[in-house]
Design goal:
- It is a single chain.
- By secondary structure, the protein is mainly alpha-helical.
- It has 25 helices and five strands.
- It has a five-stranded mixed beta sheet, with helices on both faces.
- The chain is elongated, with a radius of gyration of 31 Å.
- The N and C termini lie far apart (134 Å).
- Residues 1-7, 11-19, 247-256, 356-430 and 627-634 have low confidence and may be disordered.
């Protein structure tokens, strides 16, 4: 009997090979888009920071090699003495690139500043993901003091770059799972080795104390115990290397202990910074933004609170240890935590504001009611938690949500349980509005940086003879903030530009005296660049018994005259504040004796408002050449 049931028609199955190829292509394209959306904004922010520093370098006259011991470091890299790692790095860079010593020095500090910003962005990514890294890069890249540090020749920039990059590597290792331990090992060693370049990076190294707190908070990673151990091992290895390579100074007495009274004293120094050593008008804003970043609810909330407390302790301890020498430049390394927290606040607010839907006419009668609906009460906390805590909603790491509306959502506590916002039509067009506050803050910091650098240049030009700044002129509001900015004698030497130009007119070489803070290195550097010898005459290497006397000054000038050198002495009539005298200590009477003896032989020739010169003729050997263990009489 024939059955009336009909067999179902066979369904033609699609080609497995074709579908797998299409799916593979789609997956590759999707992965490429995700990678570009992750890295491209970070590269753009990093490039903007580099552009701002290049503009500052080109817009300022830096021919006097400003910076703490900048001329001395460049001189050591030329002569090959290289007593420190800063001059060793510069010597290696000159050999690798073939650049001139001055160009290589500027490249070293510029590259160091950019590596420091990279470390700040890594630390921001560890705390809050991509938008926190973007915010940290914007804040650190536009801050005037970090730009100032990136154009100052010296060991501060390389030391700070090593410390900041090492700390950032240790922090971000928590997100790298099995790759975390080797990254933390390298980061801990790099942060401590930065102290070998210059000990001023010590405040930045103190932020390694946050590493155990970060890894213990990340409970879902099986590497959470091994990674902080690797960071500690790297720090100990770096310390062992420093002890084996250098004789590390030991603090004794009051400097070796720290109690709350010292922190209060350091806080007073910071609050009175404007009165005694200049100021940074953007510093209070950074502190307020850092406080906001610490109290925002969401991911790593307790870790950010601890970071805020640690930042305050490090800042106050640094200011207390510096005392009356405290200035914004010395507080840059201690401000690492402030920059990261401020970047977290900038990125977090941008992500949260960009998440707000524009509101449609069906749901509300206007944008104000829609904003109140989504901003009021616990919805604000849950919206912040959406970005800082749960991957099931649009977070700061992975962009728009790819989860279904009914997918389960999780959070660290019931208080900050994630909530999903309704997506209104045209939502993606309004996401860029979330970055408007970040753009406004960046513009404010950038204009503040322009005002600071222009004021610094205007203070230097009359005392150094440098050209005026060609930077864009900021609005009067920002320029007025730095109208009382004082001249920083710690990074610029009075008459340094003329002192570097004088040896070009001395065919047989130059002779000078020891100046305050080793500023005679400008004269030696100018002679080295001109290819002529230089001699610094001091009682310690020219006089019997290492003591100055009129007879010794007479004999020294006889040898300077026989050698045909150009004698360079500071003009006592030049107006320089007594507390910033160019010659101090036991060398001041010696300089007066040489000046009196030289005036008795010939009239001086004034080549600048700061220096007096005497050109002698002769073909004899250089004076005051030290032979043997003791100083020899000429």
């Amino acid at each position: 009997m024939a059955s009336n049931s009909q067999e179902p028609a066979p369904v033609e199955e699609p080609s497995v090979r074709g579908d797998s190829s299409a799916d593979s292509t789609a997956r590759v394209q999707g992965a490429a888009r995700r990678r570009s959306s992750w890295w491209l904004p970070l590269i753009v922010v990093w490039g903007m920071a580099l552009l701002w520093r290049l503009v500052a370098t080109w817009g300022l006259d830096l021919g006097d090699v400003p910076g703490p011991a900048g001329a001395q470091i460049v001189l050591y890299s030329i002569t090959g003495e290289a007593p420190g790692w800063d001059s060793k790095l510069l010597h290696v860079l000159i050999a690798m690139t073939g650049l001139s010593p001055l160009a290589a020095a500027r490249l070293l500090v510029l590259g160091s500043g950019m590596l420091g910003i990279l470390g700040t962005m890594l630390a921001g990514w560890a705390l809050g993901g991509r938008v926190a890294a973007l915010g940290a890069g914007l804040v650190a890249g536009a801050w005037s003091q970090h730009i100032f540090l990136s154009i100052m020749v010296g060991g501060d920039a390389p030391a700070g770059a090593a410390a900041w990059l090492g700390v950032g590597m240790c922090w971000c290792a928590m997100r790298l799972r099995w790759r975390g331990p080797p990254v933390a090992l390298a980061g801990g060693a790099l942060a401590v080795v930065g102290l070998g370049v210059k000990v001023t990076a010590l405040p930045a190294v103190a932020f390694l104390l946050l590493v155990p707190f970060l890894f213990l908070w990340r409970r879902d990673s099986p590497w959470r115990l091994l990674t902080p151990i690797a960071a500690l091992a790297g720090a100990l290895a770096g310390r062992w290397w420093l002890i084996s390579q250098f004789r590390m100074p030991e603090t004794t007495g009051a400097n070796s202990s720290l109690h709350p009274g010292h922190l209060v004293s350091g806080m007073q120094w910071i609050m009175n910074l404007e009165q005694h050593s200049g100021f940074d008008a953007a510093f209070p804003l950074l502190m307020a933004m850092a406080l906001l970043g610490a109290i925002l609810p969401g991911k790593l909330y307790l870790a950010r609170l601890f970071l805020a407390l640690l930042s305050g302790v490090v800042l106050c301890a640094t200011a207390w240890s510096l005392g009356h020498h405290v200035c914004p430049r010395y507080l840059v390394f201690a401000s690492f935590g402030l920059l990261v927290l401020a970047g977290f606040a900038v990125g977090g607010l941008a992500a949260w504001a960009g998440r707000l839907p524009p509101g449609s006419r069906r749901e509300s009668s206007g944008p104000l009611r829609s904003a109140m609906r989504y901003c009021a009460g616990p919805c604000w906390a849950s919206g912040a938690s959406t970005y800082f805590n749960t991957p099931s909603t649009p977070d700061i790491q992975h962009g728009p949500s790819r989860y279904a509306p009914g997918a389960p959502r999780r959070g660290p506590s019931r208080l900050f349980r994630a909530a999903s916002f309704p997506t209104a039509p045209g939502f993606r067009r309004f996401r860029v509005l979330g970055w408007l506050p970040a753009a406004a803050l960046t513009a404010f910091l950038l204009l503040d940086s322009l005002a600071y650098l222009r004021a610094w240049s205007e203070q230097r030009s009359p005392l150094l003879g440098t050209a005026g700044a060609t930077l864009p002129r900021p609005p009067s509001f920002f320029a007025h903030r730095y109208r009382m900015l004082g001249f920083d004698y710690t990074v610029s030497a009075v008459g340094a530009l003329d002192m570097m130009e004088i040896p070009r007119k001395a065919p047989r070489g130059v002779a000078g005296v020891h100046l305050r803070d080793r500023r005679e290195a400008h004269l030696e550097l100018g002679a080295a660049l001109a290819g002529v010898p230089s001699v610094i005459v001091r009682p310690t290497n020219c006089c019997t018994g290492r003591r100055s006397s009129r007879d010794c000054a007479r004999r020294v000038l006889d040898q300077v005259e026989d050698a045909g050198l150009l004698l360079v002495l500071p003009d006592p009539a030049a107006h320089v504040p007594p507390q910033h005298s160019r010659v101090d200590g036991p060398d001041a009477p010696w300089a007066e004796l040489l000046l009196e003896e030289a005036k008795s032989r010939a009239a001086p020739r004034s080549v600048s408002p700061w220096w007096l010169t005497w050109q002698f003729s002769g073909q004899g050997p250089l004076p005051c050449q030290k032979h043997g263990p003791g100083a020899q009489s000429p």
